[in-house]
Specification:
- It contains nine helices and no strands.
- The protein is mostly helical.
- It folds into two domains: about 180 residues, no CATH class; about 45 residues.
- The termini are far apart.
- This is Dolichyldiphosphatase.
- InterPro entries: Dolichyldiphosphatase_PAP2, PAP2/HPO, PAP2/HPO_sf.
- It holds the Pfam family PAP2.
Length: about 230
């Protein structure tokens, strides 16, 4: 049915998230993004460990041959998406700070983005039950585990890793790969916008000055020729 197809595509959200992180790391090379991805990887490792300790089977009648493990407690999709959503929620409201005057718009997009992330996490969890990959208890405990892991990793990142980021960014290997630290910048989006805009204006003015210098050169040459005669 149509709803099943939609939910099946939604259940691929973890794949899209991973692709997005890899793309961000390649183009941004920011330490906090790398740390976020490391937290997701650790979260997956914890999920694998819990599954093999509890060894609770998946629900009867589900398409089990298509999955990598026969155990279903807790749901890895649910744990992954709730880790991603809760960590992003904490980052938006605790890590990012207001630096410009658009206070209302800033809060609005944070609320909308947070609501969207939590909605996607819920829909992915629901899709695993609808598609018979998990029971309600498996996705519920997966969500709880993911949320708790997100809170723990956020605190660890802020209190332990973030103070080390400037030192890590100064390592020769970090400089070679252009790894950067933006932890001291409250709003990276606003910072990049203002810096890019200022640089564009500077280059535009520099280009105009260069064109003016090129136009005046022939006149100066003609004047020198006439004076020589």
């Amino acid at each position: 049915d149509l709803s099943g197809h939609v939910l099946a595509y939604l259940s691929l959200s973890p794949v899209f998230v991973i692709v997005g992180f890899v793309t961000l790391i390649i183009f941004k090379r920011e330490l906090h993004t790398i740390s976020f991805l490391g937290g997701l990887a650790l979260n997956e490792g914890v999920n694998w460990l819990i599954k093999h300790v509890i060894q609770e089977p998946r629900p009867c009648g589900g398409p089990h041959p298509a999955v990598s493990t026969k155990y279903g407690m807790p749901s890895s999709h649910s744990q992954f998406m709730w880790f991603f959503s809760v960590y992003s929620f904490l980052f938006l409201y605790l890590r990012m700070h207001q630096t410009n005057n658009a206070r209302f718009l800033d809060l609005l997009w944070r609320h909308v983005l947070s609501l969207g992330l939590l909605t996607v996490a819920f829909l992915v969890s629901y899709s695993r039950v609808y598609l018979l990959y998990h029971t309600w208890s498996q996705v519920l405990y997966g969500g709880i585990a993911g949320g708790l892991m997100a809170i723990a990793w956020f605190v660890f990142t802020q209190e332990v890793l973030t103070p080390l980021f400037p030192r890590i960014a100064a390592w020769p290997i970090s400089e070679f790969f252009l790894i950067r630290d933006t932890s001291l910048i409250p709003n990276v989006l606003w910072f990049e916008y203002t810096v890019t805009r200022a640089e564009a204006r500077t280059r535009e003015l520099g280009g105009q000055d260069s064109q003016g210098a090129c136009v005046s050169t022939p006149r100066d040459s003609s004047a020198q020729t006439l004076s020589a005669r």
